């Protein structure tokens, strides 16, 4: 039952990544095929874990050694895969950071409030900037690469970056810079947050690192216990010495 619950959690997490449309996860999964592939892998692992939990229970109750062996093997494969994925993320973190920077940079450069084809992606990024109280990936200067703002001489700025209370109702698109008629402005003139979203995301990860590590460790411990119990049951099945049974 415990492994079926664990599988349901992993399955639900994968589905949430695919279905989420209003967070930084949405920006990544709509921009990067690798995250979408990872979500499908999570769904597959979750479904497999639920199936293995059922087979493990069936094997333990009915003392079927092949089911217990299959259960142990699948758990071992899942655990090794999780450890390998964690190591890849750790050692490739700089490359991942560069990929994130490229994804967000392209999104900011091509941001267009009138483009309905990219509406979900752009709304997700606006949501991130509002919730984290940030602007751009490294800072507001990233928005100086936006083609629309360049054509408007930087006299407009992204509303979701605003630190002004008057822009709270306009949570997407571009807002007009007060007193900027017939002049050329820069990002330094905008009433926006100074913090880049990269710093905000890193801060969130640091603040929640203990929870993330705790959950990962808990999952690994549960899987190890399942492996130990399954192999123990497998060894003990049909181990009775029938030669010692008294003859009638």
Automatic annotation (TrEMBL):
It comes from the Eukaryota. Keywords: Membrane, Transmembrane, Transmembrane helix. Coiled coil: none annotated. It is found in: Membrane. It is a multi-pass membrane protein. The chain crosses the membrane at residues 6-28, 40-61, 67-91, 211-233. One of its GO terms (cellular component) is plasma membrane. PANTHER family: CD82 ANTIGEN, TETRASPANIN. Belongs to the tetraspanin (TM4SF) family. This is Tetraspanin. It comes from Pedionomus torquatus (Plains-wanderer). The lineage of its organism: Eukaryota, Metazoa, Chordata, Craniata, Vertebrata. The gene is Cd82_1.
């Amino acid at each position: 039952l415990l492994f079926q619950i664990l599988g349901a959690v992993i399955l639900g997490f994968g589905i949430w990544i695919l279905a989420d449309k209003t967070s930084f996860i949405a920006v990544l999964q709509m921009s990067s095929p690798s995250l979408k592939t990872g979500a499908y892998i999570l769904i597959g692992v979750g479904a497999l874990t639920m199936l293995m939990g059922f087979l493990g229970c069936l094997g333990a109750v009915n003392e079927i050694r092949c089911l217990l062996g299959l259960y142990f093997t699948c758990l071992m494969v899942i655990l090794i895969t999780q450890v390998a994925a964690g190591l890849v993320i750790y050692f490739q973190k700089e490359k991942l950071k560069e990929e994130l920077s490229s994804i967000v940079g392209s999104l900011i450069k091509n941001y267009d409030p009138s483009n309905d084809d990219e509406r979900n992606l752009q709304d997700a990024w606006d949501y991130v900037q509002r919730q984290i109280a940030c602007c751009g990936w490294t800072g507001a200067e990233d928005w100086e690469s936006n083609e629309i703002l360049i054509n408007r001489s930087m006299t407009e700025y992204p509303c979701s970056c605003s630190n002004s209370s008057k822009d709270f109702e306009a949570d997407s698109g571009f807002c007009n810079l007060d007193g900027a008629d017939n002049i050329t402005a820069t990002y330094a003139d905008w009433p926006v947050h100074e913090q880049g979203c990269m710093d905000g995301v890193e801060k969130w990860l640091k603040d929640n690192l203990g929870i993330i590590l705790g959950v990962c460790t808990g999952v690994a411990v549960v899987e190890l216990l399942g492996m130990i119990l399954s192999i123990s049951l497998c060894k003990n099945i049909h181990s009775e010495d029938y030669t010692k049974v008294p003859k009638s």
